[in-house]
Amino acid sequence: MSEAIRLMRQAGVIDKTGGPFGAVIVRDGVLLAASGNSVLRDNDPSAHAEVNAIRMACKKLGEPNIKGATLFTSCECCPMCYATAYWARVDRIYYAAAWTDYADLFDDSNINDDMKRPYGERTVKISQMMQEDAQQVWREYRALPSKTRY
User: Fold this and answer.
1) What is the pLDDT of residue 128?
2) Are 47 and 24 in contact (CB under 8 A)?
3) Fewer CB atoms near the end CB (10 Å): N or C, the chain?
């Protein structure tokens, strides 16, 4: 966790590559990846420290998941980072600062609350269209003998 907090300071205060967020991924006592937030440097709203570290770890292992890994993050995961950790099959997450520690600067809890609302009441409007076309692709995918499940 100390390294995640060091990266938090590096990204947010010293290098100013993004908000003050840092993340470290360890599996079986081996450091797989460490990263800070790079949203501003990369002009990429998904370049959160956790997502960056997960991408690095998966690339290093040559696999789309890091089952058995632990994520140490300087701050409580936003919904995107949690979902990325979930899809990467991270086993455990430890965090230092809670959403309430920086709610005046970042809206992680607001996003979490927004996602609980019905589609029609969310900030980002969501509507379904062309469902049958998409279902056809799913039928084709299901028929593939070499389909990937993840």
Assistant:
1) 93
2) no
3) C
